[in-house]
Amino acid sequence: LNPGSINYDQGVYVNAPSDIAYWAQEMQRRGIKPDVAIFDVAMVANTMALVERGWIEEPVLFSFVLGQAGALPATARNLVFLAETIPAGSPWCVAGHGGHDLRMSVLSMAMGGHARAGFEDNPYYRCGEPAASNAQLIERLVRIGRELGREPATPDEARAMLGLGSRAG
């Protein structure tokens, strides 16, 4: 769920308040837990207004998107600021765009947040070297996470973190 509009490279990614409300209500009606994409700090306030209306249940999963042209730059300072802006105990992760994915993921894991990877965010393993698969990107984060003392969550652990019930048979 994108809880606001943002300049996006050379265009504008428009999410009108009425559209955001519609999607939040529809997700809530269908029992879908949104992954809330935060491109700018105002989107945190927009998200909390949706929580207050009862359209999103806590804990909210915040995905900070940093480094996208037209949005917040991918800096440690911005990541710390966003992590400190959301409600305490909220699960969060970061997606670094523009070649910042690995650095932002490592910072996130070191700060107690989570990491996100895949071709949607970045199709490269290294600058100029395409990744062979999404699995290659995930395996790297698992290795680094373990080196930082962070074991990957099991599906049941992830469901508990997100406040989801157990998965039906």
Overall outline: globular
How much is the average pLDDT? 93
| Strand percent estimate | 15-25%
> From N to C, what is the helix and strand string?
EEHEHEHEHEEEHH
The secondary structure category is alpha/beta
Going across the major beta sheet, what is the strand order?
3-4-5-6
Number of E strands? 8
Count of separate DSSP helical elements: 6
End-to-end CA span = 27 Å
Give the biggest beta sheet. 4 strands, parallel
Helix content: 25-40%
Rg for CA atoms: 16 Å
Unreliable residue runs: none
Annotation keywords:
two-stranded antiparallel ribbon, alpha/beta, four-stranded parallel beta sheet, 169 residues
How would you describe what is shown here?
It is a single chain. This protein has helices at 17-30, 42-52, 76-85, 101-111, 134-147, 155-161; strands at residues 6-8, 11-13, 35-38, 61-66, 92-96, 114-115, 124-126, 129-130. With 169 residues, it is of the alpha/beta class. A 4-stranded parallel β-sheet has the order 3-4-5-6, covered by helices on one side. The protein has a two-stranded antiparallel ribbon with strand order 1-2. It has a two-stranded antiparallel ribbon with strand order 7-8. Helix 2 links the parallel strand 3 (35-38) and strand 4. It is globular, with a radius of gyration of 16 Å.
